[in-house]
Specification:
Length: 414
């Protein structure tokens, strides 16, 4: 369900599944006569079929790509399953139908119809695309049902549906959140730093690549930022103010999930890395407050922010390079290399939080640094609390490039 989905028209080939952008639904299945439809005169939507109604729901999330993509994926799976497999409109689904759907997402059958070959991820226009890359994990199943429940609730509130059949599903007691597993251990993180430090720097292009790798890993790790925050960030978001001790404190202002602003402590170590990165790229050592230079500079140009996918690819490239470098050291490094190849930019955010916690940083400090919980309005006045958070973060959470260099020297001498 992309941001522009064509009108559904009759004569769909119901033997195949395809992205809803190109799906063609016959009138008897498009929901105009769905058994759960609300009264037309009380509906607050102009939608007259299920596809348009779901599109209206998704339009609320059009400005947040990750959320939009996730919500479209779950709505699309249910819509396709209802129409193709069950032969019913979305707006005719019952409690009993949704019980079947719960079983279905745990093991989509038939596989050839629903699951992509080899579990691969293909472009939505590719003939090999399927709604699933494999059975959903228990956590993904729960998330799918949560999203679909929100969709049904919205459609009921809008008057398009009379009731929410999803609300009748039995919800198991919520388990305690599992510990984060998608992060790099301290020893594996040291390997990443060693890899970056051994990158060649003989040519201008090599020096530029090394500088970007070092800056990216430093920025993600020390600041615990989301990929969207890095992609959309600007150098002018760095600022300094006087602390309670009369000394300068550096901070980075960022716009996080849900358009919530937060400020993250910036250590002298990060400021030095910022100076080095900017100087190598021909910029003044420190940014001005109003500077619009991107946090991560493109190799060509200066004022164009990199996309989320470009940042993702850059981090994946570092991890892939480190994995190859590890494998070259011997077969005993194979498992560690495999772990790095699975890692992504979000792993660095988890790594930052995990290493802060392991290093003894107060959990409330980590919460505020990562933006898991927004600060209350009154906390704007608690400058003493901010001072403590700044001191604790910059003193206990370090990049330690010098340690990586010393370890590289020892490794080279073996």
């Amino acid at each position: 369900m992309s941001k522009a989905v064509p009108e559904a028209v009759p004569n769909a080939d119901l033997a195949t599944v395809q992205p809803v952008e190109s799906l063609v639904v016959p009138e008897r299945l498009d929901g105009r006569d769905g058994t759960n439809r609300g009264a037309a005169q009380t509906s607050q939507l102009s939608a007259r079929n299920d596809l348009d109604a779901v599109r209206a729901w998704l339009s609320n999330y059009a400005d947040t790509k990750t959320t939009f993509d996730n919500y479209r994926k779950e709505a699309e799976r249910l819509l396709l399953w209802a129409v193709v497999q069950l032969g019913k409109p979305l707006s005719s689904l019952t409690h009993e139908d949704l019980l079947l759907f719960k079983t279905f997402i745990a093991d989509p059958q038939p596989v050839a119809r629903w699951v992509s070959a080899n579990g691969g991820k293909y472009a939505r226009g590719d003939a090999r695309w399927r709604p699933f890359n494999g059975p959903l994990s228990p956590a993904s199943q729960r998330q799918a049902l949560i999203i679909l429940n929100a969709m049904f609730t919205w459609l009921v509130n809008a008057g398009y549906l009379r009731g929410n059949p999803m609300a009748l599903l039995r919800q198991r007691a919520k388990r305690s959140a599992p510990r984060v597993t998608r992060y790099l251990s301290t020893s594996l993180w040291d390997e990443v730093k060693l890899f970056v430090e051994q990158l060649p720097r003989d040519t201008d292009a090599q020096r530029a690549y090394y500088a970007r790798c070092r800056w990216l890993t430093t920025l993600f790790y020390l600041q615990g930022m989301r990929i969207s925050e890095v992609a959309g960030g600007q150098m002018g978001q760095f600022f300094r103010r006087l602390g309670a001790d009369g000394l300068d404190q550096w901070w980075l202002e960022t716009l996080g999930k849900g358009d919530k602003e937060r400020i993250v402590p910036v250590s002298a170590e990060l400021v030095q890395e910022l100076r080095s990165y900017r100087t190598l790229n021909g910029l003044a050592a420190l940014p001005t407050r109003a500077e619009e230079t991107p946090l991560v500079l493109p190799f060509k140009g200066r004022n164009r922010c990199l996309s989320r996918s470009a940042i993702h690819d850059a981090i994946k490239g570092i991890f892939a390079g480190a994995a190859t470098w590890l494998r070259a050291r011997g077969p005993e490094f194979g498992d560690r290399a495999d772990e790095l190849e699975r890692a992504s930019a979000h792993w660095l955010r988890h790594t930052a939080g995990s290493h802060q916690a392991d290093g003894g940083v107060d959990l409330r400090t980590i919460r505020d640094n990562l933006g898991h919980v927004s600060l209350n309005t009154t906390s704007l006045y608690l400058h003493t609390e901010d001072d403590t958070r700044h001191s604790e973060t910059v003193n206990r959470h370090r990049m330690n490039w010098d340690d990586a260099n010393s370890k590289e020297g020892k490794a080279g001498g073996n």
